[in-house]
Write a structure and sequence with these properties.
It is flat and about 90 Å long. The chain contains 24 helices and 28 strands. Helix 3 packs parallel to helix 4, helix 7 runs parallel beside helix 9 and helix 13 runs parallel beside helix 14. It starts with 8 loop residues before the first helix and ends with a strand. Among the domains are: 138 residues, 3-Layer(aba) Sandwich (Rossmann fold), CATH 3.40.50.261; 113 residues, Dna Ligase, domain 1; 114 residues, ATP-grasp fold, B domain (D-amino Acid Aminotransferase, Chain A, domain 1). 47% of the residues are buried. The structure holds acetyl coenzyme *A.
């Protein structure tokens, strides 16, 4: 029976830490872990466990856990894989609360059964497992470095959760180089039990943690992670780097951690939905984390660029547009703010250009003016090396102004010049000035700050549980259960139509005929033109079988089509049982879209939207979201596709019925949620007509779980 889980805070703030496999031999991991715990200044009790007994780094070791008289909150395991299972049982017996298994040799190399057994024992005994296959964890709050990584870690405001051990250790080194302080770093490895969601639960409310950085290779339980991430980003910035963008990368990641790297596009969209900043590379992630952990929230959206060079000013304006940084645009106010510092041949428009000929005093006056003006909320300072702005003046003047004002408001600097000039910029960076050699990096930091500012502004709205569109869940389950009972894991056209009806999704009128006369009667009833399609369990690809006839204009054409379909299908598969021939209203032309809902292996229920035809097939122009979403998010998803302007109407066309598309997206998600048997729903095409004229689901494919 599963026992109640201990509070995750005990993992970060243990009072007693055991090291199982503590060794007196320098060079062994069991030695390094004990040394790191000691050197890091941990003030709790350290309990070395070694069957031989004796001393480890001056501490008396115990031959077994049982020999230690007190409680153990966290045990770090550094013994060979073959001894781990027995040792886990001993930990369970002792009542250990958290176990950090550094040892490799489990699911990442195919040893899945043993890993599952370890988790089973842990859960039966109220114990939680970090790892296996990890470097351990560092928790700054209690100065605990229970890793075999570097012993020298700067304390600060960034917490790192990493799936890769080696990269995690490298990141500790990198944070030191970049002068970034850590509040914690946790290696999750195979994530057999504790995953990102568990750790975020603690970090969201941890006052020491200002920014959370996650390195992810694959998502295992996205349905649990997504709500926690959404909550986290309303409180503090979360930055993610994920490997596996390329197919090759995804394969490497899969073999590296033993977990499948989630489809990258889905990951990208879901992170955006959660308000997570996805970095392209490690350097970008480090830049963002450092900046976000130091800078205050801006008081508004007005950003001003101060520059001595028009070219870099324009480049910067482009970068601002790319990163959604809003440039202050009130020309009169800008003139008033900067006319005292900008020479007559410069420009007070934004970018504020003091020009290369201006003196250093003018430069400083312009920056001072930007700090002093309450309507200016953030500043980007750019500089090109000139006869006036040299390496020497740069360190002197910029150093002074940052010393005077620092982060009174968000500010970034980027200066371009020769080696002496760049060296001076480097000196300033080492002094803590947010100075970037590349202006795109400076602007991207400002961009994530503003994305965060907007996210914070959403407050509760960002985490509110969306209302669901009502669908007839009982009817949907009845249909799916009957299909399963029939031994199928796909729905026939008429069954798909019934599901659409149960969700009130508009479909073309359709009737199943069993005789030629009936087909003609139905066609007359529906109104010409009509489409006819074979209905047979054994014929899934109807067009290939010659089982579809389009654009039938009168009774004679219906009779001919009926005979042709019967003939073609009998030839195609003589054993196929033909249940009937479907007579369907031929829908008018409109904009073809595609809507899907499916169980993603990483994120669970997800929905998809795109435009049909070449847009989805060639350009893969589709957007995804984790389910559930509200109206607002469904609309944001539709706007995410590159071909969105086509829905707004081009070349004099009217806007399409976007509300109708949103409605179907929300209903498709609700269908998936209403029935555990359904794994995939795809409406292709969903034809969208002009605003107010609705949409029509022309074809639907629904798949069920395979046994
Ligand atoms: N309880 C307590 N101590 C035990 C037990 C036990 N049941 N069994 C053995 N020990 C002791 C040993 O006697 C030894 O102590 P000693 O030095 O006094 O003799 C100590 O535990 C370690 O045992 P060794 O057999 O010496 O094992 P070794 O240190 O060579 O390897 C290790 C153990 C490091 C856990 C190894 O099996 C392993 O998994 N290495 C990979 C770790 C790793 O890379 N993890 C991923 C990190 S992330 C990244 O990629 C960097």
């Amino acid at each position: 029976m599963t026992q109640q889980k201990p509070s995750i805070s005990l993992l970060f703030e243990p009072k007693t830490v055991a090291v199982i496999g503590a060794s007196a031999t320098p060079g062994k991991i069991g030695y390094q872990v004990v040394k790191n715990i000691q050197d890091g200044g941990y003030e709790g009790t350290i309990v070395p466990i070694n069957p031989k007994g004796g001393e480890v780094l001056g501490l008396e070791s115990y031959k077994s856990l049982e020999d230690f008289p007190g409680d153990i909150d966290l045990a770090t395991m550094v013994i060979p894989a073959k001894f781990v299972l027995d040792s886990v049982k001993a930990c369970a017996k002792k009542g250990v609360k958290f176990l950090s298994i550094i040892t490799s040799g489990f699911s990442e190399v195919g040893n899945v059964e043993e890993e599952l057994e370890i988790v089973r024992i842990a859960h039966e005994n109220g114990m939680r497992i970090l790892g296996p296959n990890i470097f351990g964890l560092y928790s700054g709050g209690v100065s605990l470095n229970a890793t075999f990584g570097p012993s020298d870690i700067n304390k600060g405001g960034v917490s790192i959760i990493t799936q890769s051990g080696a990269l995690g250790i490298a990141m500790i080194g990198k944070t030191k180089v970049e002068n970034i302080g850590l509040s914690s770093i946790i290696s999750v490895g195979n994530k057999c039990d504790i995953d990102e969601a568990d750790l975020l639960e603690y970090l969201i409310d941890d006052d020491e943690t200002k920014v959370i950085l996650m390195y992810i290779e694959g998502i295992k339980n996205g349905e649990r992670l997504v709500p926690v991430l959404k909550r986290a980003t309303t409180k503090k910035p979360v930055v993610a780097i994920k490997s596996g963008r390329s197919k090759r990368g995804a394969m490497a990641a899969a073999s590296h951690t033993g977990s499948l790297a989630g489809a990258d596009e889905v990951f990208d969209f879901v992170m955006k939905q959660c308000g997570v900043h996805r970095a392209e590379n490690l350097q970008e992630a480090m830049n963002w984390c450092k900046y976000l952990s130091e800078v205050p929230m801006p008081k508004g959206e007005n950003v001003v660029i101060v520059t001595n060079g028009g070219g870099v000013g324009v480049l910067c304006a482009d970068a601002c547009e790319k990163h959604d940084v809003t440039l202050y645009d009130d020309q009169a106010a800008l003139k008033e703010a900067f006319s005292g510092s900008v020479p007559s041949f410069g420009s007070t428009k934004n970018p504020v250009d003091i020009t290369g000929g201006a003196s250093m005093d003018d430069y400083m006056a312009a920056i001072e003016a930007a700090y002093a003006n309450d309507d200016i909320h953030s500043i980007i300072v750019l500089g090109c090396e000139t006869a006036v702005l040299t390496g020497g003046t740069l360190t002197e003047y910029i150093g002074k102004i940052f010393e005077r004002h620092g982060y009174e408001k968000p500010i970034v600097y980027s200066f371009v010049g020769g080696s002496e000039f760049e060296d001076s910029a480097g000196v300033l960076r080492d002094q803590g000035v947010p100075m970037f050699p590349e202006l795109y990096d400076a602007v991207s930091c400002m961009g994530v700050l503003y994305a965060d500012y907007r996210r914070r502004g959403m407050g509760e709205e960002a985490i509110a549980e969306p209302e669901r569109k009502p669908v007839d869940a009982e009817r949907i389950n009845e249909i799916a259960t009957a299909v399963k009972a029939d031994g199928r894991s796909f729905l026939l056209a008429n069954e798909g139509l019934e599901v659409m009806k149960a969700a009130k999704i508009p479909m073309p009128v359709s009737l199943i005929s069993h005789t030629m006369d009936q087909a003609v009667a139905y066609a007359e009833k529906i109104g010409y033109p009509v489409v006819m399609k074979v209905v047979s369990n054994e014929i899934v690809h109807k067009s290939d079988a010659g089982g579809v006839a389009l654009n039938l204009e009168n009774a004679d054409e219906v009779i001919d089509a009926y005979q042709a379909i019967m003939h073609n299908c009998r030839n195609y598969n003589p054993d196929a049982k033909i249940t009937g021939i479907e007579v369907v209203e031929m829908v008018k032309k409109g904009t073809e879209t595609i809507i899907g809902a499916r169980i993603d292996p990483g994120f669970g229920r997800t929905i998809m939207f795109g435009l049909g035809g070449i847009y989805v097939e060639v350009m893969k122009d589709v957007a995804f979201r984790s389910w559930p979403v509200d109206n607002h998010e469904a609309l944001a998803m539709i706007k995410d596709i590159k071909s969105y302007p086509l829905l707004l109407g081009v070349r004099g066309e009217e806007q399409r019925d976007i509300d109708g598309v949103v409605d179907v997206l929300l209903k498709v998600g609700a269908i998936l949620e209403s029935c555990d048997l359904i794994t995939d729903i795809e409406i292709n095409p969903l034809v969208a007509y002009e605003q107010g004229e609705g949409v029509k689901a022309v074809d639907v494919r629904i798949l069920l779980k395979k046994d």
